[in-house]
Every structure is written in structure tokens, then in C-alpha cells.
Design brief:
This protein is of the alpha/beta class and about 525 residues long. Helices cover about 35% and strands about 20% of the residues. The strands form six sheets. The protein has a six-stranded mixed beta sheet with strand order 10-15-14-13-11-12, sandwiched between helices. It has a six-stranded mixed beta sheet with strand order 18-23-22-21-19-20.
């Protein structure tokens, strides 16, 4: 059947948003309202005629509300096929009335976990009757409408539903129960039982937007966020102005935000990203100085790039950024002067993120491969001065150590093989994504020389710089390329069978070199 007139509705919700307005609309259409617990109280307080579920079932709510809707008179009224004579006869024999509409949203399990509740309270917030009613109603969507999303309530204010609506409601209902079960299973596995990689993994996600296309125009794409929430990232940023964000915009902006977050407790810092790789990073006393230093590292790649900063944007910095074409700017906030400057750039997307994400946070990274997925813990490894091991005859100076750690932090976010030169809190040259480390070292040095030529400097900033390698130097040639570029200090993981050869080359060149014991491959 297509059109179904709603004669009886069962309403049982944890989130009361819109429920009174829905009840009023249904009551005005003469619908018999049946409800439970707090929902019934909310409807009665609004002056609506409503029957308790116990009036329908003949049994009281019991066991602290654990048992109230798990009854044949509820599920029989939901599951009965209306044009099946045997079903109709069973309904008549057992005095089961048909239920045409069910409105349910579930106990707030994820919210209870998120606020740090104890185990007993978390278990009590595992809904049983709600999902059972949702599934029963959704299965029998040919006759029954199931609403799990308050934004859909106005669609039934008229007192009837169409088959097309009921099919869509059923789809959303099963998505809701799947996400709910996944959240519960995830909590049991990861939190309650401490399983890092359980036998089965479900990741409930909520669509936020369909994008114009994917990496390329022939691909389709959408943005989803994890239903569990908990992380304030680029997907949660408020877009103040500009064109719709593309797949590549989101990907690049995420790379920029993740890197600048490494400096969230440090001095004003600016990150410029192109194709998910940083092309300029700098820290300085002011945001505008940091931007100018980051831009100088590679002004060619910065054109059409993505910028992220770790401080609220001010007018002078916004004016400087507006000097070249920029796709996206992400910042914790922006003052009125900065907003006015960017308002003149109608296509520039300004994203305000609020508090920057914690770079040390735990989490999982997932990558699809043919026939499966790879899942790993996110790379939240951190290195401090105390973790470094000096392996050369000469120990680095305080400034060299600072430059080493700065270069190391940036290299963590550069595609492997990664080489980063840094000096005075600014990148001097970045070599990314090459098939061997020697070429990355040469490219980074060449880019630094090119930057110096464009800026009219007497020498490239690799002179007297520190160089970071995301993984060990397998041969001395990559290190010697850094020496040729003018680096005086090196930071690398170590661990190669040729470490002694590389250390000897560093000593012969008068370099200071430290090992981290940790690598940062990024593929």
C-alpha cells in the first residue's frame, strides 16, 4: 500500500527535541498517542491526551524501565502484515492493535561514555527496547513508519505517510541502529576489554556534505565524521566565507592543521601546504613575521596553497596572506580586521577551528587497499631534547638542537622519503616523496637555493642549518648532500646497518648528529 493513515503512534524518545510539536500535530489529526516514561510526561505536560505503554500491554513498566516495550502487543502491532489473513486473525484473537507510526531515539550511550561515566551507568545506557522497536517497525515499513531523526518529524505532521517516505525512514532507522551497535561494540572492545584490534571493526560515520567531486572530476566524494565525535578537527571547522570546499581542500587543510597543531603551545607559527606536503613552515615573534618566513621558503609552491596558523588571525597577517592566491586559510579564530580583509577575496575559504587538536591524542588511521583496509594507531610519537642521543664527536649547540627539533617536527608531516632543512625557526628547504633519500636531500637544497635567488639573499638558508631525515640514512651519500648544502647538524632515527659509516662521515665533515630512535614514515 502507498498512503497509510496514521491511527496509532508510539512515541518513546531520549532526546525530546520536537516531540511535543509532533504530538500536537498528530493529536490534531485524531491520532491515538501511546508513550513511555519521560516522553509521556512531556506530552502530558503539554496538555496532550496520551496513553501509557502499560495501558496497551496490560503489564507495568518494570525492572527500572528495562522491560516496558518488549511485549507481543507492541511488536505484534508493529510486525503484523496488514493484508495477511493469518496475521490479522492473530491480532484479533490476542487483541493486538496495529501501530502505524513509531518515534524512537535511543539512550545516549555515546554521550554517556564521552562524559566519563562509570561502567555501571554506561551499561544502563545500552538501549534494548528502543532498537527492537526500531528494527520491527523498519522491517514492516510497507505499513509502518519509523522516525529516528527529529528533522523528519514535520514530514508526518499531516497524519499520513507514503511508501517512499517509509522506505527512506527504514533506511535511516537501520543506519541508526547499526551506528548504535557499533559504538557499543567499540566501547566493549577498546575500553572495557582493552582490545587494540578486535576481530571485527565497525566505524559509524555521519555524512556532513556531498562534495563536488573527489581528487579528480570523474570521482565522486562526500565528507563524513565519526558518530562518536570527540575530536575538533578540520571537518568540524566553521567556514566563514568562500567557495564550497573540495575533496582536495579538505585533505590539504587537514594536513596543514595537523602540522600547525604540533606548535599549538609554541610561538606564533604558520604552515603552508601544497598537495598535502608542507612547502613552508616558520615560527616567529608575530604571526605576520612567521608567515613571511614560511612564504620565503617556497613562494612558488605557496601559490594556490593552504595556510594554517596556531593563533587567531589579525588584520596585518591577513593582508600579507592576501598578497598571493590562497585556497584555504585555517585558524583558531580571526579578528574583525582579518575578516574584513578576507571578505574582499570572495573565493578564499576561511575556516575557524577553535581549539587546535592535540597532536599527542590517541586514535586510529585507516587506509583502503584492494580487498581490505589497513588500520594502525595514529602517529602521535613525540621527541624531546632528553630523548636525543648524540652520536658524533661534536655535540650540537643549543641553537642547532632547536633547529633539529623544529626540522624533525616538520619532517613528521612530509611524505617519505622526507628531508627538511631548518634554521632559526623556519624551514629552509623541503624534499618530499622521493624514491631515495639522496634525491630528497638534493631537491630540498635546490629549493633552498632557488628561494635565496628569488629573495635576493646572499646565501641559501641551508647554510648553517639543521637537517632532519624521517628515517635513517641507509648510506652516507644523503648526509653528504646535506653537508654540501651547508647543514651543520643532523637529526635522524638511526638504526641502519651502516650507522657507523654515516657517523664517520658526519665526524669527518664536522657535523653534530643526534639519533631519535623513532622514525616517521608517511605514505
Amino acid at each position: 500500500m502507498d498512503q497509510v493513515q496514521i491511527k496509532r503512534a508510539l512515541l518513546s524518545v531520549s532526546d525530546k527535541t520536537g516531540i511535543v510539536e509532533l504530538g500536537q500535530a498528530l493529536a490534531a489529526q485524531g491520532v491515538d498517542l501511546v508513550s513511555t516514561g519521560g516522553t509521556a510526561r512531556a506530552l502530558r505536560d503539554a496538555g496532550l491526551p496520551v496513553r501509557d505503554i502499560s495501558d496497551l500491554t496490560g503489564f507495568p513498566e518494570m525492572m527500572d524501565g528495562r522491560v516496558k516495550t518488549l511485549h507481543p502487543k507492541v511488536h505484534g502491532g508493529l510486525l503484523a502484515v496488514r493484508d495477511n489473513p493469518e496475521h490479522v486473525a492473530s491480532m484479533q484473537e490476542h487483541e493486538i492493535g496495529a501501530i502505524d507510526l513509531v518515534v524512537v531515539n535511543l539512550y545516549p550511550f555515546a554521550q554517556t561514555v564521552a562524559r566519563g561515566a562509570g561502567r555501571e551507568e554506561i551499561i544502563e545506557n545500552i538501549d534494548i527496547g528502543g532498537p527492537s522497536m526500531v528494527r520491527s517497525a523498519a522491517k514492516n515499513h510497507e505499513s509502518v513508519a519509523i522516525l529516528t531523526d527529529p528533522t523528519d518529524y514535520p514530514l508526518v505532521h499531516g497524519g499520513s505517510t507514503t511508501l517512499e517516505q517509509r522506505r527512506r525512514f527504514a533506511m535511516k532507522a537501520y543506519q541508526a541502529t547499526a551506528a548504535y551497535d557499533a559504538a557499543i561494540a567499540g566501547w566493549f572492545a577498546h575500553v572495557d576489554q582493552g582490545e587494540r584490534f578486535p576481530d571485527s571493526v565497525s566505524v559509524p560515520m555521519i555524512k556532513q556534505a556531498e562534495l563536488r567531486y573527489g581528487e579528480n572530476p570523474h570521482q565522486i566524494a562526500a565528507l563524513y565524521t565519526q558518530a562518536s565525535g570527540g575530536v575538533n578537527g578540520i571537518a568540524q571547522a566553521k567556514q566563514v566565507q568562500g567557495k564550497e570546499l573540495s575533496y582536495n581542500n579538505y585533505n590539504d587543510a587537514d594536513a596543514a592543521l595537523e602540522l600547525v597543531s604540533e606548535f599549538r603551545d609554541g610561538p606564533p607559527t604558520v604552515v603552508i601546504v601544497k598537495h598535502a606536503n608542507p612547502c613552508g613552515v616558520a615560527s616567529a615573534d608575530t604571526l605576520i613575521e612567521a608567515y613571511q618566513a614560511a612564504l620565503a621558503c617556497d613562494s612558488v609552491s605557496a601559490f594556490g596553497g593552504i595556510i594554517a596558523v596556531n593563533r587567531p588571525l589579525d588584520g596585518p597577517t591577513a593582508e600579507a596572506i592576501s598578497g598571493i592566491f590562497t585556497e584555504v586559510v585555517a585558524a583558531p579564530d580571526a579578528d574583525e580586521a582579518a575578516r574584513e580583509v578576507f571578505a574582499r577575496k570572495k573565493n578564499l575559504r576561511l575556516l575557524l577551528t577553535g581549539e587546535l587538536p592535540d597532536p599527542a591524542r590517541r586514535g586510529r588511521a585507516m587506509k583502503s587497499i584492494a580487498g581490505g583496509f589497513l588500520i594502525q594507531s595514529r602517529d602521535n610519537g613525540m621527541i624531546t631534547r632528553e630523548d636525543l642521543k648524540v652520536v658524533t664527536k661534536r655535540a650540537p649547540s643549543d641553537q642547532e638542537l632547536a633547529d633539529c627539533l623544529f626540522a624533525w617536527t616538520v619532517a613528521k608531516h612530509v611524505k617519505s622519503n622526507a628531508i627538511v632543512y631548518a634554521k632559526g625557526g623556519s624551514t629552509a628547504g623541503v624534499g618530499a616523496g622521493q624514491m631515495n633519500r639522496l634525491e630528497s636531500a638534493r631537491i630540498a637544497a635546490w629549493k633552498a637555493k632557488d628561494a635565496a635567488d628569488k629573495a635576493g639573499w646572499a646565501e641559501p638558508r641551508t647554510i648553517g642549518s639543521a637537517v632532519a631525515s624521517d628515517a635513517f640514512f641507509p648510506f652516507a651519500d644523503g648526509l653528504l648532500a646535506a653537508v654540501e648544502a651547508g647543514a651543520t647538524a643532523v637529526i635522524q632515527p638511526g638504526g641502519s646497518i651502516r650507522d657507523e659509516e654515516v657517523i664517520a662521515a658526519a665526524d669527518a665533515a664536522g657535523l653534530a648528529m643526534v639519533f631519535t630512535g623513532m622514525r616517521h614514515f608517511r605514505h
